[in-house]
Amino acid sequence: MKPQPNVNSQYARDLTYAFHPYTNARAHEERGPIIMDHGKGVFVYDDQGNEYLEALAGLWSVGVGYGEERLVTAAAEQMRKLPYYHSFAHKANGPAIDLAEQLVKMTPERLARVFFANSGSEANDTVIKMVWYYNNAIGRPEKKKIVARIRGYHGITIASGSLTGLPWNHRDFDLPIANILHTACPHHYRFAMEGESEEEFASRLAGQFEQLILDEGPETIAAFIGEPVMGAGGVIVPPKTYWQKIQAICRKYDILVIADEVITGFGRTGTPFACERFDIDPDILVLSKQITSSYLPMSAVLFTDAFYQPIADNTAKIGTFGHGFTTSGHPVASAVALENLAIIQERDLFGNAARVGEYLQTRLRSAFSDHPLVGEIRGVGLIAAVELVADKASKRSFDPLGRLGAYFFDQGHKRGIIIRNVQDSMAICPPLVITEEEVDELVKRFGQTLDDALAWSR
Ligand code: PLP
């Protein structure tokens, strides 16, 4: 029987007052919330005392894990000193300056400056506006279209949600807006032709991208945006040579390369940034999530000096850059980000992500490759997905797609593990602090849930 909550309980008041993001509201009215209460390391605990291994690090984001006192102290100290200041009209604050310098120094070579926002979506909206502004500034007002990818994820605001290439982010929201195009998803397992190698598949996708540019007119295409490894679309690691080929086409037609590292930034794939791992040389880089381990909202857009100069000239012509958020460069979020980055460095969490990431990838494959439900195990570093199929040989999915994934997600909670189901792909992205013993526990709980799913599917 469902719990019969006291009308004053948090449970009842959530049902009465809240409308949840990314939630089926009617289902929520039936089943109610799981109320999270506290966390430590890779574990979180609900208000009933149940323990969960947070195998998705919240939303791919709690890099240093839960209960990190140093971030609490950093926030409290900055709160006491200067809890808020903005960065409009020549104002600055110490933590935001230090963070800007550190980000420029630690990210790929050509990136020279930072603009701060609060979420990945805001950052990507900022990017779109800056790209449009830039092309207006240099006298190319027709060069405005941005190419994103089917199954890519860049956020949910009107503009960033348009970049996102997932149907549920567009449906009934009247998206996408004009000037946003989507090219093919680089998922070899699903979309390669019979016998096509990764390199051949990458060449075919690059050819499709080039054809799209030619069909639209290269003079109308401003930028290409992609996650080095797709996250929310199902953890899709690009086929070999994909990024080199896409970048070469961008350079050929003077198209800006935007790397959205909101998930992959700060060690997730085993290198500080996934751009390094995949040889991406971006003109614009987008960061968020692990920048503060999501203890506070923060995002950053980094860009080259070549991109900055005409924009700066245009602000002088107009008199201002008419864009910015009340909380851009928030001093408390910046102080938390700086402390978070110090922890990452002191504890060698990039190294940990590489080493334990390798262990995770190996363990997942050795434990589950032969499981009757498992079609593909993919991933790199500390991000992975296990795709469930009805038939391994033909790769046939279950019908309806996503029903088994939804069962797996729910059942995982009963087994003490939180993953993310993207249709029937089960995404794993634990905190960067995870140890090999905790990976063993993750694999154990995942395996129990997988066996439950097998029994349920028969
Ligand atoms: N970009 C990527 C790659 C993301 O994964 C996300 C969120 O998951 C976003 C952008 C949007 O970030 P936010 O939810 O903070 O708006």
TrEMBL record:
InterPro entries: Aminotrans_3, Aminotrans_3_PPA_site, PyrdxlP-dep_Trfase, PyrdxlP-dep_Trfase_major, PyrdxlP-dep_Trfase_small. The keyword Transferase applies. GO terms for molecular function: adenosylmethionine-8-amino-7-oxononanoate transaminase activity; pyridoxal phosphate binding. Signal peptide: none annotated. It comes from the Bacteria. PROSITE patterns: AA_TRANSFER_CLASS_3. Its cofactor is pyridoxal 5'-phosphate. One of its GO terms (biological process) is biotin biosynthetic process. Keywords: Aminotransferase, Pyridoxal phosphate, Pyruvate, Transferase. Belongs to the class-III pyridoxal-phosphate-dependent aminotransferase family. This is 4-aminobutyrate---pyruvate transaminase. It comes from Bauldia litoralis.
